[in-house]
Specification:
Length: 326
């Protein structure tokens, strides 16, 4: 069974996606009537940094597809972020994000956003499962959060799995450069479903400061990258069983014992000074999307299909409001 043939699009899906987009857009406009309009999700940036992404030269043939086809080094931008729609202090429990943008990638892309025509993006978060299985549940969660106390109680009582994943995923981390990040949702590699992860090479020995400042995660990155680079191994996990590793359930963990992540590239965050007003503004203006990709790396599943509409619409909105050329 190919990755594409495992996708199931219900008749109601488009309605949930449109409802979700309208809700997030309206909330963003209401909450930011003037000034710089941030992202709806992942608005707080711990740092936008320069990196190199080197595809390994000894890969087996089933990985030799798309950007992994040939050994090569791409220059890249990496944006580290929180997930909560509020830019809250770093000591609050949250999910952390790592958005990678490879530059100089030739070939048609699935998105037609002109500023990303030469990019292949990978979006990763600090948990290996997404909170919700599909867009219907995610839209229901957003509706409940925007609704009354009764709406929230009803949603979370009916969806204990979401509550459990929230408890497991929301954590306090010491340094964004020492976190393991996952795509959590699946992608095609040719015609086979896979997931991605980035694992820090150095062991995490840092502790959360005893009296953490609001932005201690940025400070930890500044201190480390002033002295030395940081490396991640980029890995691919191949689906080995469509039933226990479904493409239409983003909340289902793909068992690493059954199919481990195998190293295919190295992401090297260069030693650098990045905490400047120009770089921070650049990070606000940029946009990342799983749909900035070659067709052979197409995102799979309803959560990813929803992201195609939402990321394009929200990034167009905030860039227009913020005066960024579209
Ligand atoms: C239906 C589910 C989801 C919705 C509605 C959603 C929504 C959003 C939105 C609106 C943004 C900001 C886009 C922009 O203005 O440029 C964003 C950013 C982001 N999302 Fe999602 N998201 C979803 C699922 C996921 C999943 C499954 C991941 C897993 C990797 C993820 C990871 C990220 C990351 C890392 C960013 C920050 C990108 C950056 O640094 O600019 N999201 N999301």
């Amino acid at each position: 069974m190919t990755g594409s043939s495992q996708e199931v699009v219900t008749t109601f899906e488009e309605g949930y996606i449109n409802d979700l987009f309208e809700r997030l857009k309206t909330q963003l406009i209401d909450e930011h009537p003037d000034g710089l309009m941030p992202r709806d999700a992942h608005p707080k940036m711990h740092g936008l940094v320069r990196a190199e992404f080197t595809v390994h030269d000894n890969l087996p043939p089933h990985y030799r597809i798309g950007i992994f086809a040939m050994p090569a080094t791409y220059t890249a931008w990496v944006r580290f972020s929180n997930a909560n729609s509020a830019a809250q202090p770093d000591a609050k429990r949250d999910i952390r994000g790592m958005a990678i943008k490879l530059e100089g990638v030739p070939g048609d892309k699935l998105s037609d956003e002109p500023d990303c025509a030469q990019n292949q993006d990978f979006l990763l978060i600090s948990t290996d499962t997404f909170l919700c299985d599909n867009v219907q549940t995610f839209d229901g969660m957003v509706r409940a959060i925007q609704g009354s106390l009764w709406d929230k109680l009803r949603f979370f009582a009916c969806n204990p799995g979401v509550v459990w994943r929230l408890i497991c995923a929301f954590k306090v981390f010491a340094n964004p450069l020492a976190i393991r990040y996952f795509s959590s949702t699946p992608y095609l590699l040719g015609d086979h479903p896979v997931k991605y992860c980035a694992t820090p090479v150095a062991a995490n020995t840092q502790a959360v400061p005893a009296h953490p400042g609001d932005n201690f995660l940025r400070e930890a990155m500044v201190a480390q990258l002033a002295k030395q680079p940081a490396e991640f191994v980029f890995g691919i996990q191949r689906q080995s069983d469509p039933r226990s590793m479904p493409v239409e359930n983003a909340a289902k963990r793909w068992d690493e014992a059954a199919s481990p992540f195998e190293a295919v590239a190295t992401l090297r965050i260069l030693a650098q000074e990045f905490d400047t007003s120009e770089r921070n503004r650049q990070g606000e203006d940029m946009r990342f999307s799983p749909w900035h990709c070659l067709p052979v790396h197409r995102p799979l599943g309803s959560i990813n299909r929803a992201r195609r509409v939402v990321y394009h619409g929200i990034s167009q909105l905030r860039r227009r409001v913020n005066g960024v050329s579209l």
